[in-house]
Write a structure and sequence with these properties.
This protein has strands at 4-7, 10-13, 18-24, 31-39, 46-51, 57-59, 67-72, 77-82, 91-99, 106-107, 111-116. By secondary structure, the chain is mainly β.
């Protein structure tokens, strides 16, 4: 069973930056899409950013220009660089990995990001 291990969350003041990382417990063959989701208290989970194996990225409108998703295919690691953080970015952030041969995603356990005003 593959586990996704996330790190980098924490408490930061508004305007600050954090970098999230997510790596699998073992190598995953032929990863297609890697993504970050978030869920704030009382709200639905939402897609924050995604990146394909070819490096094509998509972002939620609320984070465009502030967040950057990237991946290291050698280590199957996905990153989320978060700059100019706002209190409304406070949420639990989850990474997901979709192998090309699987019709579902692996999910991480989530990492808390708290932005104070």
């Amino acid at each position: 069973q593959v586990r996704l291990v996330e790190s980098g969350g924490g408490l930061v003041q508004a305007g600050g930056s954090l970098r999230l990382s997510c790596a699998p417990s073992r190598s995953i063959f032929s990863i297609n899409v890697m993504a970050w989701y978030r869920q704030a208290p009382g709200k639905q989970r939402e897609l924050v950013a995604r990146i394909t194996s070819g490096g094509i990225t998509n972002y939620a409108d609320s984070v465009k220009g502030r967040f950057t998703i990237s991946r290291d295919n050698a280590t199957d690691t996905v990153y989320l660089q978060m700059n100019s953080l706002k209190p409304e970015d406070t949420a639990v952030y989850y990474c997901t990995v979709r192998p090309a041969w699987l019709n579902s995603d692996y999910w991480g356990q989530g990492t808390q990001v708290t932005v104070s005003s």
